[in-house]
Amino acid sequence: MKKLNLFVILFCFVFCFFSCKNEKDISSREKLLQILETENLSSDSRFSVINQISQSMLNSEDTDSLILFLTDYITANPKDTYNAYWLLMVAYAYQLNGANPIAEMYFERILNNYDDLLVKGKSVHMLCLQNLIQISENPNNRIIYFSRLISHFPDKVSKTELYYRLAVEYEKLGEWNQVLKSYSDFLAQPDASEIQIPGSPNAYTTAKNLVEFNNSSKDWTFETLDDLVNAVKRSLSWYDFNTLEKYKSKVNFFSMSWRQDEEQENSLANFTMRDFGYGNRIRYSANLDETSTPNEAYLRTWGWSNYINVWYFYFRKINFPLDPEIHGRWEWAGIYFGEKL
After folding, report:
1. Alpha-carbon distance 20 to 298, whole Å?
2. Mind listing the pLDDT tens digit for each residue in 203-219?
3. Which residues pair with 299 in a beta bridge?
4. Global pTM value
5. Which of 35, 123, 233, 281 has its CA 20 to 30 A from that of 88?
6. Which has the closest alpha carbon to 287: 301, 299, 303, 304?
C-alpha cells in the first residue's frame, strides 16, 4: 500500500512538473508574441524575440506552429534582414517532420533568393548546402552543391573529400571527362593519400588507378579474354618471360596472397617473371578456374618455387568508358599466390 501511495505521489509530481513547465513555456511564448506585436523593437531585439519564440516551439516539438508562425511572419515582413535564417528554421522543421522534399525546396529558396547571412558566426548558405547534400538524391543537384561549397567556402570544407564526391556524382551521370578532372583535382590535394572518406575506404587507390590508366599507353590490353589467355599460355610454354612481362598491366599490377588486401603497399609486384620462372618447369591448367565470371577470370599455374608453388593469374575486363576503344578489353591485372581459399 505504501508503494502504491509513493507511486501515485511520484506520478502526480512528474505530471504537475511537466504540466507546469508546458504552461510556463506557453505563457512565456504568449508574452513574447504580445511584445512582438505591440512593441516598437529594434532589428536586433526583434530577432531575439522571434528566435526565443521559435526555439520554444522547437523545444516543445510544435513544428507545425513553428512553420506557420515563421512563414506568416516572412510574408508580412518581406524585407526583414533575417528572413533567410527564419526560412532555414522552417526547412529544418520540415526535416524534423520527415518532409525532406519540402525542406529541399526551402533550402533552395534561400540559396537562390537571399544573400548569405551570418548568424552566431555560421553561414546560412553553407548550412543550406550541407543539409541539401544530406537529403538530395539528384546527382545534378549534388554536383551543384559540392561545387558551391568548394568555390564559396574553400577554407571551411575539405576540398579533398568534395572533389572525390564530385567524381562519384559525375560517374553516376556518365560524364567521364568530368570524372577524370575531379579525380585529378582530388589527387592534387596534399592530403589525398591520407584522407579517410566515409563510405569510400579505397578513395585514393580508385582515383589514382583511373588517372594513371588514362595517362598510360594501354598497350598491354587484349580485345578478348581468349586472346589474352592464349598469349599468356604461349609465353609460358616457350618460357618466354620477357614477352610474358609485357602482358602485365602497367598500372598497379599486384601480387599477393588470397588473404592479403590489394591496398597494402607490399601487394604491388616488384619482381619480374624471370626471377621465379627461369630454370623451373612451369605448367598451367587447360581451362580457366570454375569461379571465373564474365568480368574476371583466373588461370591456375604451378612450378614456380618450393616456397609457393601455385600461382593464380588474375585477368579482368577493363571498365574505362572514357575511351570506347579500350572499354571492355581485357588485361592481366595481378597474381594470387597459393591455392584458392
Report:
1. 73
2. 999 999 999 999 999 99
3. 313
4. 0.80
5. 35
6. 299
